Amino acid sequence: MKLKICGIRDIDILQYACEAGIDFVGFIMAHESPRKISNNFLVSLENFNFQDTSPVFVFVNPSVDEVNEITNKIENPILQFHGDEEDNFCQQFNQSFWKTIRVKNSQSLKAIDDFPSADAILLETFSDDVYGGTGKMFDWSLLEKISLQRKFVLAGGINPENIKEAVSLNPWCIDVNSGVESSPALKDKTMMDQIIKNFKNG
Questions:
Q1: Distance separating alpha carbons of residues 172 and 43, to the nearest angstrom
Q2: pLDDT recorded at residue 202
Q3: Rounded-to-integer distance, Cα 80 and Cα 67, Å
Q4: What is the pLDDT of residue 67?
Q5: Burial track 55-87 (b if 16+ CB lie within 10 A, e otherwise)
Q6: Angle, in degrees to the nearest 10, between helices 11-19 and 189-200
Q7: Which pLDDT score, from 0 to 100, does residue 10 have?
Q8: What share of the chain is helix, strand, coil (3-state, %, to 5)?
Q9: Residue 48: its pLDDT value, please?
């Protein structure tokens, strides 16, 4: 099982995550997100040594140019599409990509079949107001209704207290964002340590 820390926008935290052996680190590109990375931070990523950690860039309804900027600057990025993008749009960049399905009820899960090209499907909590980063869990019992033949990334409200329960559901990857923040958009190394410990002992 893999672990992803998303919403990183600080080089010190990024270095800490890579040295801790986190599988994936996520960078928010969505303009309306408080966790959106700065241009200076993006420039610093171009020559950053990710070691064995894979960078994931999170987009919400981007233009083709916005995605190409990342694929031209970063070697082998994973693209995560978090908006209303369709499969054809996502696969045109010839990069590994994850597609987010925002889960409201069991009907929401039917959208998984609309993305046969996705390398992984990320399940996030539905909200009327925002495309992600709700910090809330959806009804995990819905996962019993889906085939685990696809690679699933479980996201939404995962923190040090409930990550063992998340592990017990056996997703391919667990995605943590606000659950390792001491305040909005501010990652906390102590909370990251706790997540990693509970994840490994889950």
A1: 31
A2: 73
A3: 10
A4: 98
A5: bbbbbbebeeeebeebeeebeebbbbbbbebee
A6: 20
A7: 96
A8: 35, 20, 45
A9: 97
The burial class, CB within 10 Å (0-12 / 13-18 / 19+), for 141 is exposed
Average pLDDT in the chain? 93
Beta bridge partners of 59: 81
Q: At 71, which amino acid appears? A: T
Judge contact between 174 and 166, C-beta under 8 A: yes
Q: Which residues of the chain have pLDDT under 70?
A: 128-135, 147-148
Q: CA–CA separation, 114 vs 128, rounded Å?
A: 21
For residue 128, give every residue at least 6 positions away whose Cβ sits within 8 Å of its Cβ, in sequence order, or none: none
In angstroms, the CA 202 to CA 169 distance is: 11
Domains, the chain, ordered by start: 2-200 (3.20.20.70)
Residue 102 — φ and ψ, nearest 5°? -90, 115
Under DSSP, is residue 153 helix (H, G, I), strand (E, B) or coil? strand
Question: For residues 36 and 9, is the Cβ–Cβ distance under 8 A?
Answer: yes
Q: Are 105 and 92 in contact (CB under 8 A)?
A: no
Name the 3-class secondary structure at 190: helix
